[in-house]
Amino acid sequence: MMRAWILPTLFALCGLLVATGMVLSGSPGEAAALLLMFVLLAGMHSSLVFPSSLSAPEAQRRSAIDGRPIVYWRPGCKFCLRLRFRLGRRTRQLHWVNIWQDPDGAAAVRAANEGNETVPTVVVAGRPHTNPDPAWVREQLPSST
After folding, report:
1. Contact of 85 with 58, CB cutoff 8 Å
2. Domain housing 23
3. Are 58 and 94 members of one domain?
4. Which residue(s) pair with 72 in the sheet?
5. What residue ranges are annotated as transmembrane (predicted)?
6. Which of 69, 72, 96, 115 is the most buried (most CB within 10 A)?
């Protein structure tokens, strides 16, 4: 759980340190803008941007029932962010598993990617797809929801 917050915390702390230095040197406006940028970066790399994560077994159980894809992801992954933002509101139609919070999810990703924890790994109908195009993922979503 803590591992997921290391990068966002570092972004926020670095922004705070740089902004403090800028305020002390007489540039409060620039300091505020820079701090805002660092806080936004921290937020984008945190778990807050993604829907709440499920455990891998729970995601698999739900996917078997409703046919929705499972997305294995981790905070700080630019390809996961790309998928998340390109899916827009439809993001909530997938089952998300944070591999840094779920050892079973990390194991599933390693099994699908020759021992590597390459994310996003999207599982559709039991078949894993590593870093698929967001448009393709959108096509895999049930149209009724």
Report:
1. no
2. 3-48
3. yes
4. 97, 121
5. 31-54
6. 72
- State whether the Cα torsion 125-126-132-134 is positive or negative: positive
Note whether 83 and 133 are within 8 A (CB).
no
Is residue 115 one of the residues assigned to a domain? yes
Q: Distance between CA atoms of 137 and 121, rounded to whole angstroms?
A: 11
| SS3 (DSSP) at 98 | strand
Residue type at position 123? V
Single-letter amino acid, residue 119: V
65 and 33, same structural domain?
no
User: What is the three-class DSSP state of 89?
Assistant: helix
**Does 64 lie in the same domain as 27?**
no
User: Per-residue pLDDT for the chain (145 aa), expressed as one digit of tens each?
Assistant: 466 678 788 889 999 999 999 999 999 999 999 999 998 888 777 766 777 789 999 999 999 999 999 999 998 889 998 998 898 888 889 999 999 999 999 999 999 999 999 999 999 999 999 999 999 999 998 875 4
CB 98 within 8 A of CB 75: yes
**pTM (2 d.p.):** 0.71
